[in-house]
Design the sequence.
């Protein structure tokens, strides 16, 4: 099978932190597709402003005005690329559903073109009740479904996509057994150690911090040793572009998520180049994205 006959759909990190960078990338994606690898498609850009519903990574100092949120919405819709919200806080109570800012974000992006990554059943039910099919719903890898039978049950639920726990990434026997592979999304460049027994606790700590704005003096997770693309490549669960084309696409998977919401911006650029851009255009595209990054810093 020639895997280049099938698209690799990428879901990219950091919409709200790296908006200027994505303005450049999507302009190139529209006007200079020859720079992008032949079978690459951008499926969404995910992230969150500073909302207490956010999970997976701590997002602070990312509070946008109503006008700024509308501009980001218009930008994504101009390119027909969904914004995907990481509303995966796992410690939510009913009182948190009425967060003014979170509901403002939902109202602004309530155009039928955007997506929600879910963890909390409480929040998911609240959004489904109030917005119905105006959003697409994605099950989060933060649910930590390492048991294959539980992962299979999740795939039977009413989700647009399910982001598999990335400890399944190299379990080829299990991956081959999945019937609805088109509903799966694989995270390619995890920074978390494979089979880390502290990962669920880490997600809870992040959720608590996002709710309380207080980390309790806890240091960052001491088990995460990876902070660059090059270090991530050495991780057991890493999926390279070659793996995608030679193994995962022929197996029937087509959706791939890139981590990096809180990455150093220069490292995020290298990640995007590595997965999306043809080698001969790396220098040119890197220059464009770095210029956008410096411009955004200068304007801050």
Sequence:
């Amino acid at each position: 099978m020639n895997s280049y006959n099938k698209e690799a759909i990428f879901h990219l990190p950091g919409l709200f932190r790296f908006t200027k960078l994505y303005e450049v990338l999507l302009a190139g994606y529209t006007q200079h597709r020859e720079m992008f690898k032949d079978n690459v498609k951008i499926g969404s850009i995910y992230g969150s402003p500073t909302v207490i519903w956010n999970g997976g990574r701590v997002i602070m100092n990312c509070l946008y005005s109503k006008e700024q949120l509308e501009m980001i919405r218009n930008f994504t819709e101009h390119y027909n690329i969904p914004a995907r919200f990481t509303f995966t806080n796992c410690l939510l109570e009913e009182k948190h559903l009425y967060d003014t800012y979170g509901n403002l974000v939902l109202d602004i992006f309530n155009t039928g073109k955007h997506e929600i990554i879910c963890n909390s059943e409480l929040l998911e039910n609240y959004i489904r009740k109030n917005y119905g099919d105006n959003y697409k719903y994605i099950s989060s890898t933060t649910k930590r479904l390492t048991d294959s039978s539980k992962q299979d049950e999740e795939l039977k639920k009413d989700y647009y996509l399910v982001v598999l726990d990335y400890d399944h990434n190299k379990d080829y026997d299990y991956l081959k057994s999945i019937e609805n592979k088109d509903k799966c999304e694989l995270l390619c460049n995890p920074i978390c150690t494979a089979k880390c027994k502290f990962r669920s606790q880490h997600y809870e700590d992040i959720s608590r911090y996002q709710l309380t704005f207080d980390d309790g003096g806890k240091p960052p997770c001491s088990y995460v040793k990876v902070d660059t693309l090059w270090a991530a490549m050495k991780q057991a669960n890493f999926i390279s572009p070659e793996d995608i084309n030679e193994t995962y696409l022929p197996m029937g998977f087509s959706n791939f998520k890139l981590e990096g919401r809180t990455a150093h911006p220069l490292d995020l650029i290298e990640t995007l180049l590595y997965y999306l851009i043809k080698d001969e255009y790396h220098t040119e595209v890197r220059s464009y994205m770095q210029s956008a990054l410096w411009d955004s810093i200068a304007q801050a």
